[in-house]
Structure formats: C-alpha cells, structure tokens
Amino acid sequence: MSKRSILAVPAGLGFLAAGASPAFAQSAAPTLNSGDTAWMMTSSALVLMMTVPGLALYYGGLLRRKNILSMLMQCFFATALITVLWCIVGYSLAFTAGNPFIGGLSRFMLEGTGLNGLSGTIPETVFAMFQCTFAIITPVLILGGPADRLKFSSAMVFLGIWLLAVYCPIAHMVWGPGGFLGSAGVLDFAGGTVVHINSAVAGLVAAIMVGKRTGYGRDNMAPGDLGFTLAGASLLWVGWFGFNAGSALTSGGLAGMAMINTQLATAAAVVSWTLAEWAVKGKPSLLGAVSGAVAGLVAITPACGFVGVSGALVIGLAAGVVCYWGVTGFKGMFKYDDALDVWGVHGMGGILGAMLTGVFALQEVGGHKGLIEGNPHQLLLQAEGIAVTILYCGIASFIILKLIDMTMGLRVSKEDEVQGLDITQHGEVIQHHS
Asked: How does residue 29 score in pLDDT terms, banded at 50, 70 and 90?
C-alpha cells in the first residue's frame, strides 16, 4: 500500500497507519480548529477514565476480595508513573522522526509542543495528552495476566521499562513518522495491534513466568465483587468512544462512523457471548455479558474507522464467540493461569479485529476517501503487523521480566499470597460488615 497525501482527510491514527505521521503530517498551512480541539480534549478525558476508575474497577472486581485494593493501587499508581515517563521521553520516542523502529528525542520533556505547535487541527499538547492516555492503559492491561501474585514494586518497575522498551517502539512502528509497519500499509485505526495484542502478549508471558496462583484449579477463585466489574466495564464502554472516535483526531464524519461502529460491535459481542455461554452452560451470566462487551470493544478498535456498519456487526458477533472460546477452550487446552484472561479477550479479540479489518476495509468511510478495500494483500499486511508485534513484545517482555526476577524477584511469598496482597503489600483491607 503506497503512502498517500492526507490533505483531504484528518490526520487520524488510522490514516497515519498507511504511512503518514500524526504530529508532522499536516497541510501546508494548518490552522487550529476549536471544535476538533474540544473533541480531542474530551476524548483524552474519556480514555483516562477508562483506566481510572474503569479498568481498576473492572479488574479489581474480578479478583478475590483480599486482592481488590492491591489491583486498584496498581492501576492508580501506574497511571501516575506512566504519565511522568511519557511526558519526559515516551512521547518523543513514539511520535517523532527517528528510524523505522523508534523515534528520536526532539520532543524530550515535550520540548517544542508549546502554545503554538499544531498536530493537524489541534494543539500538539492535546495530541500528546491524548496519546498519553493510550500509553497509560496499555501497560496497565498487562496486570490482569499475573494478577494475585505479582509484587507491587516489581510490577511498577516492569511497566515503566516496558512502556519505553516495548510500547513506544510498537506505537512508532504503526503510527509514528516513517514507522516500519505503518509505512508498509498495516491498518490499525485505534490500537488493536499497538494496545491490545501488545498488552495481551506481555500479560500472557508474565502470567506464565510468574507461575500459577497458589491453589489454582483447586480453590474457589470466583470474582469478589461483580458490581465493581460491571461498573468498570460500563466506564470502559463509555470511555471507548474517546478511544475509537477520538482516534480520528477530528470531530467530523469519520469520528461519527467510528462511534456508531464501536457501539454496534460491542452490543453484538454482548449478545453473541451471552448466547454462546447460555448454550454451553445452561445459564447466561453477568460476567459473560460484561466480558462480551470488552471483547467487542477490543475487536472493533483496529477497524472502527475503516469499515461500514455491516462489517462492525460481523466483527462484534465473531468477537463474542471467539473470545468466549479463548477464555474457556483455548485456555483449557494450554492450562496457563492468565488470571483475568488478558490473552483470551485482548489478544484473541485484537488478532480477530486486526485480520477482519483487512477483510471489511472500505474505500470510503465517513465521507473520507483513500482507503484500499479489503483484499488478500491487505490480509497479509495485517498478519505481518500481528506477527511483528507478537514476536517483538514476547521476546522483549521475557527479557525484562527475567532481569527483574533475577534482581528483585517477581512473585510474593506463598504466605503473603495466601493472606492476600491488600494487607501484605499495602497494609489495607476491605472491611467485612456483619
């Protein structure tokens, strides 16, 4: 897929995936658009809400009560840590010109974004903030894999290193100026590869390296508070409109198309997951419906600005069934302990969505032309993006985790794990009322 001018379309992340760059692919005389700016500031707040409190509640509620606070703390502190690292050097590594695999340091400490710097029709400061929220949620998603048994200190060190060594290179390769995968024509509108496959691979590697939870397969490990999980998933669903529709980097027709596609695919996945579970287990569960919503959100992410409504419907229906099998059949076959099913939902959902983007991509979406329709060549490109992400993330994550294990240790003691991470790691507990 050849590079193309984006003068006729907004500098959205999806369009950049085919060879342009967000911070630098501008028209000859870019002008500030207050409507686009207001939408992107709103989208940034929505995506931040996806992590705190959204993902924190979603993940926390899925754990046993003795570990809920520890997960809330991990998500909250990681949000702060990653923000600091992103503003110092992460944004520059991901979104400035460097080489096909990593950016440079021209935006170190956000130097040059300034009051008058523009990224398309929005201030570059707003673009950097929007991307900061993506950079936050991606590493935090990893925490679901080794949940219940990972040291807080080791988890935070890992996420900090992983952000710079894994997330920034993958983001640059897909979305950055001259990025290896984006220049080749790999399509990822809002992060199916960069966010979901990337975090899922790291979560799976971490879960396997840390080892199974004590009592896994024997003890009752049912979610401690599905009310938390429903509240968190609902915040994810609402916040995801900032994630997907915000990735158009404009408040125009493309954002509207991404929004309706996101809603439809999510709803379709809730229906298909619930019906699949009902058929297999005899009862529809709240946990299944909630999981279906997240699966649909994940799968439509790479495709939302490239496909029509019918494509979104098929992607959502497929995601519910495929991800249900991912957290039951696939997980059962390989017998790994991915505590919160990061791989089954985000990994398999992300791969499904990335591949179906190549099937359903249209030449015109939301009034914007220039996309190549789904075809066998595009499927090969999508597979290339998936393979590069899995290989690079898997190898790099293993190395980082191994180094941390050799120095700090990854896992809490068996005694601390049995007692619960809330009290042993943080000295706090949820009070049980009689």
From this structure: low
If phi over 0 gives left and psi between -120 and 50 gives alpha, with beta otherwise, what is residue 282?
left
- Residue 78 CB neighbour total at 10 angstroms: 25
Question: Among candidates 289, 248, 247, which has minimal Cα distance to 266?
Answer: 289
pLDDT tens, 33-66? 999 999 999 999 999 999 999 999 999 999 999 9
**Which one-letter DSSP state was computed for residue 411?**
B
Compute the distance between CA of residue 344 and CA of residue 64 in angstroms, rounded to an integer: 20
Look up the pTM and report it. 0.93
Domain boundaries 13-426, corresponding CATH code: 1.10.3430.10
Q: Answer for the pair 44, 130: CB distance below 8 angstroms, yes or no.
A: yes
Give yes or no for a contact between 188 and 385, defined as CB atoms under 8 angstroms apart. yes
Tokens of 78: 């990681």
| Residues 133, 139, 142, 143, Cα dihedral to 10° | -90
| Per-residue model confidence (pLDDT) at position 117 | 85
How many residues would you count in the chain? 434
Please determine, for residue 377, whether its predicted confidence score (pLDDT) is greater than 70: yes
Nearest to 187 by CA among 383, 31, 14, 327: 14
Residue 250's identity, in one-letter code, is: T
State the first-to-last Cα distance of the chain, in angstroms, to the nearest integer: 64
pLDDT for res 433: 63
Reference 389, options 208, 196, 100; nearest CA is 196
Q: Which residues, listed in sequence order, are joined to residue 364 by a DSSP beta bridge?
A: 369
Q: Which residues make Cβ contacts (< 8 Å) with residue 165, sequence separation at least 6?
A: 396, 400
Beta strands (DSSP E) in 56-133 are 118-119, 122-123
| Identity of residue 42 | T
Q: Is 129 helix (H, G, I), strand (E, B) or coil?
A: helix
Residue entry with tokens 């989208």? 43
Distance of alpha carbon 244 from alpha carbon 315, whole angstroms: 15
Contact 28, 112 (CB under 8 A): no
Non-local (6+) Cβ contacts of 365 within 8 A are: 254, 257, 305, 306, 307, 308, 371
Q: Where are the domains of the chain?
A: 13-426
The whole-number pLDDT of residue 100 equals 97
> Are the C-beta atoms of residues 340 and 144 closer than 8 Å to each other?
yes
CA distance 352 to 119: 31
